[in-house]
Amino acid sequence: MSSDTAKRHAYESETHYFGMWTFLASEVLFFGGLFLAYGIYRSHYPDAFAEASGHLKMGLGALNTFILLGSSLTMALAVGAARESGKVRPWLAATIVLGIVFLGIKFTEWGLEAHENLVPNASFEFDGPHAPQARLFFVLYFAMTGLHALHMTAGIVFLSWLWFRTPHRDDLSHPVEITGLYWHFVDIIWVFLFPLLYLVS
After folding, report:
1. What is the dihedral of CA 14, 19, 25, 31, to 10 degrees?
2. Which domains does the chain possess?
3. DSSP calls for 17-63
């Protein structure tokens, strides 16, 4: 590889890293607005939010937390393998599978909540004096977990694209590392979402 080519690759790599960090910074602001709104309303209606949180499926939420922590590990191993020109595809595949399992459990949980009429629509049912505030809790819950699931889906798409491209590229370290940054960001968001939504009481 010539010096000019090496410089061009280094410049492209720095540009890609800068672009991803800029994107993640904008996502922090976006999620930060939701977290701020949640924090304000939770401070105003602590009893209602605690009561509403008790209707969530704690076991499924905890299971998904462990699954995402596992996916962070497999993603880190994929990055390490890419840096050493090792076998990246098995770790990418493991991360994709764990992401799909997470979404499957999340959709199952949403289905159970819909069956209990906890979706904040016209058929919303919640017994007790805190029904209006509980509706607000579930609005924030579905908005935050839904946005997170959307980001998870995008991450799975990126990882799948990398998995298919792996046999056709010699240097995958930069694309895998950049995608890894995004994946770890999505995992960190869930680490904050789980205690905020499931451990209110």
Report:
1. -140
2. 3-198 (1.20.120.80)
3. HHHHHHHHHHHHHHHHHHHHHHHHHHHH-HHHHHHHHTTS-HHHHHH
User: How many beta carbons lie within 10 A of that of residue 158, not counting itself?
Assistant: 16
pLDDT of res. 5: 46
Cα–Cα distance measured from residue 7 to residue 39, given in angstroms and rounded to the nearest whole number: 47
Three-state SS string over 164-201 comes to HHHHHCCCCHHHHHHHHHHHHHHHHHHHHHHHHHHCCC
Residue 19 has pLDDT above 80, yes or no: no
DSSP string, 115-143: HTT-SSSTT----STTHHHHHHHHHHHHH
Residue whose pair of structure tokens reads 């008790």 in the numeric block: 54
Task: State pLDDT tens for residues 63-117.
Answer: 999 999 999 999 999 998 888 877 888 999 999 999 999 999 999 999 999 999 9
The pLDDT tens digits for 3-15 are 544 444 444 566 7
Q: Rounded to an integer, what distance in angstroms lies between the CA atom of residue 188 and that of residue 182?
A: 10
Report the distance separating Cα 65 and Cα 71, nearest Å: 10
